[in-house]
Amino acid sequence: MSKQLRIGILGGGQLGRMLLQVAANYPVHTNVLEQGADAPAAKLCHSFTDGDIRDFDTVYAFGKTVDVLTIEIENVNLEALFKLEEEGLTIYPRPHALKIIKDKGLQKQFYYDHHIPTSNFYLLNTKAELEAKADFLPAALKLREGGYDGKGVELMRSTADFVRAFDEPTVLEKMVDIDKEIAVMAAKNAAGELAVYPPVEMVFDPRYNLVDFLLAPAALTEAQTKAAQALALKVVEALDSPGIFAVEMFLDKSGNILVNETAPRTHNSGHQSIEGNYSSQYDMQMRVLQNLPLGDTSNVQPSLMLNLIGEPGFSGEAVYSGLDLAVKLPKVYVHLYGKTHTKPGRKMGHVTILGNNTEELMQKAAFVKQALKVIA
What we know:
With 376 residues, the protein is α+β, with helices and mostly antiparallel strands.
């Protein structure tokens, strides 16, 4: 009997948890590094290490115990990953790709250098530099590192908004006249095989600047669908790394498709794939890590993914009110992330809904949204 492949995962949040649920179907031994034994992924892996994924020594020592290493969040110690790769460890995505994506400034420059359409931008180092860019507004100001789920982003519609500007390295991106926000998941294995999912359309919650729900497939023309998929594959090929990637894009009102950001991992915009596609994004990541043939990305049926977030006014131990009502509906699948405590706007789970058409999906989603609440 051959030795089980030892897979290491840096990060133990909900993405790691969902990856582990799929990993149980494969002949692998899973190891997770994360701070806090109450992390969502802690109870589902074979081995758990309580440690800081940003610390060089901790990540380096963890990497020496596995055969292949991956991430579920970008905020990891890159220097340790480069050293481990130099010493022969397989790391997907590769550290050079992670370095580009982790820094939004490097990421935007990468798109420009590889002729990948994106919004115009400036790289700034201080708040003072923003004062000279008043004629560039309206624009989005993003921290180059550390932002996620709408955090680290401020909209600069006029100079009056400069009071909210960050006084550290940022990217100032020209605001796009958006028709739709879409995303495409794409994967590449070590053999060079590529796979791309149908685009999804994301609708954002303006309170928290994170996805409220998404529809799969996105309501695009055939030409737009093919163009978005081709653009996602161009990004992945240019990054020159095995892995699974989420390429977020804008479809503007002139019909242009622009790349917004890329995530070097599974992503919120691919959650519906667990039930909505024949090979989910997590199954695809497991195939990449084992260098197996990539899976079937086709949609099983039209689907909708609804993010389940903490209700306003509630902080404390999480209570899921109306869970029984939500799961009564046919083709409704509830995924809770194992987080013990809630607060307003915190991602606590998601719900995938399958249906025959958008109208059916939206009706079911409206019921679930009204019935299922995360309170304390």
